[in-house]
Design goal:
Aspartate Aminotransferase, domain 2, alpha/beta, 2 domains, 380 residues
C-alpha cells in the first residue's frame, strides 16, 4: 500500500472515530486541536492561571514531580518528555551504580520491541531474557540465568503479551530472586496506575518492591505526553543530570505538566471502575463471538488484568479495519480500532481493546449488538 493511500485511510479512520457517539474509549488522536486547547485551558484554571509558566523544569513541573513521588511513595521523581528516555536513563544509571551493564528483561519489553536498539547503541548495555513465555518471568527462571546481571526490569503490565500481570506473590518472589543475585529492580510502570486492582496492593506497595519506577502520563491518565522516573533522591538527581545530557531538559513544559496533573485528578480515581468494566466487556465479546459462530477467536486474557486486553480474529487486518470504519461511519459506534496481522500466524489479526469513561455506558447487550453488526460488515 502506498504511503498516500495509507495516510488517507488513517485520516478516514480518525475522522470516523472522532465523530462516533458510542465508543469504548476516546483516544486523543481523534480530537481536534481546538478541543484539546479547550480542555487544557479548563484544566489550567485549577492550577492557577495567574502563576508564571515553568522554566527548565521548575514551577508546575516540580509540582507534578512532588505529586508523583507522593502518590507512589518514593523519595523523589523527575519529569521526562518521553518514557523511552526515562527508562534508558534509569538503566544507564543503575549500570553505573552496580558496575554491571547487563539488564535482565522480557524480550517483549518496550526497550526490546520499540526503541530501535537504543540500550546497546546509546548506553552500551546488553540484555538477557529470563523467559520467552508470554508472561512476566518467574522467580525460578530469574534464578536460572547463567550469567550475572545488574538490573532486573519488569514491565507491569506486559503489554505485548496482552497487558498481563503476575499475582502479587509471584511478583514479590521475582523481585526477591533478583535481590539474591545482588541486582537492582526497575519497574516499567508506564501503566502502573491501573495495576493495583489485580495485584490487590496500593501503588506505594507495588512501587516499594523496586529500586526505581517509570510511569507515563498519557497511556492511562489522558495527558498530552510525558513521563516520570521515581526512586531514591540521589538516584533521581543523577537521572536529572543524564536527562540534560539526553536533551530532555526542555525550556517550557507547562502544557504537559498541567494535563498530567489533571489526569491524576480526573482519571486515576476512575481507573478501578475501568478495570472492573473491562471484565464485563471481555466476557460479552467472548459470548457474542461464540454465538455468532466465529470459526476461531481469542479474547486475551479471558479475564483482563487491567482495563486493556487483546482480541484475535481469523481475518486479514485490512478486512477488519475496513469493517470497523464502516461501522463507525454508518452507526456512530466504535467497538474495535486498528487491527494488525503481523503479530500472529497468517490469516489471524489482533487488536487492543481499551475501556475508559465512554465504555462504562456499554452493557453486555450493547457489546453483543456491536459484535453482530461488526461481523456482518466483515462477512460482506
Amino acid at each position: 500500500m502506498a504511503n498516500g493511500q495509507r495516510d488517507e485511510e488513517r485520516a478516514r479512520r480518525l475522522t470516523a472515530w472522532g465523530r462516533a457517539d458510542r465508543k469504548l474509549s476516546a483516544p486523543a488522536a481523534t480530537e481536534t486541536v481546538g478541543r484539546q486547547l479547550e480542555r487544557l485551558a479548563a484544566d489550567a484554571a485549577a492550577y492557577g492561571l495567574g502563576n508564571r509558566t515553568d522554566l527548565y523544569g521548575d514551577g508546575v513541573v516540580e509540582t507534578l514531580e512532588d505529586r508523583v513521588s507522593g502518590l507512589i511513595g518514593t523519595e523523589a521523581a523527575a519529569f521526562f518528555p518521553t518514557g523511552t528516555m526515562a527508562q534508558q536513563v534509569a538503566l544507564r544509571c543503575w549500570a553505573g551504580r552496580t558496575g554491571n551493564a547487563t539488564v535482565a528483561l522480557h524480550p517483549l519489553a518496550h526497550p526490546e520491541r520499540w526503541e530501535r536498539g537504543a540500550l546497546p547503541v546509546l548506553a552500551g548495555l546488553r540484555t538477557v531474557h529470563p523467559t520467552t513465555e508470554p508472561r512476566l518471568p518467574l522467580a525460578e527462571e530469574i534464578r536460572a540465568l547463567d550469567e550475572p546481571y545488574g538490573t532486573l526490569m519488569l514491565e507491569l503490565p506486559l503489554r505485548e503479551a496482552g497487558f498481563v500481570l503476575p499475582g502479587w506473590d509471584e511478583l514479590a518472589e521475582a523481585v526477591a530472586a533478583a535481590r539474591e543475585a545482588d541486582a537492582v529492580v526497575h519497574l516499567d510502570g508506564a501503566r502502573l496506575w491501573e495495576c493495583a486492582p489485580h495485584l490487590g496492593r496500593s501503588l506505594p506497595e507495588i512501587a516499594g518492591l523496586a529500586d526505581s519506577v517509570y510511569v507515563s502520563f498519557y497511556k492511562s491518565l489522558g495527558g498530552l505526553s510525558g513521563a516520570a522516573l521515581a526512586g531514591p533522591g540521589s538516584f533521581v538527581a543523577e537521572a536529572k543530570a543524564w536527562r540534560h545530557r539526553y536533551g530532555g531538559l526542555l525550556f517550557q513544559q507547562w502544557p504537559v505538566a498541567v494535563s498530567a496533573l489533571a489526569g491524576l485528578d480526573r482519571e486515576l480515581p476512575r481507573l478501578p471502575s475501568y478495570v472492573a468494566h473491562a471484565k464485563t466487556v471481555a466476557a460479552a465479546l467472548s459470548e457474542a463471538f461464540g454465538a455468532a459462530g466465529t470459526p476461531w477467536f481469542r479474547v486475551w486474557p479471558q479475564v483482563p488484568h487491567t482495563h486493556e486486553f487483546q482480541v484475535w480474529l481469523p481475518y486479514p487486518a485490512d478486512t477488519l479495519n475496513a469493517a470497523g470504519v464502516r461501522q463507525a461511519e454508518e452507526t456512530g459506534r466504535v467497538l474495535f480500532r486498528t487491527w494488525d496481522d503481523g503479530s500472529g500466524p497468517p490469516g489471524v489479526s489482533m487488536t487492543e481493546v481499551t475501556v475508559t469513561a465512554p465504555g462504562l455506558e456499554w452493557t453486555a447487550a450493547d457489546v453483543a449488538a456491536g459484535v453482530t453488526d461488526f461481523l456482518e460488515r466483515v462477512r460482506d
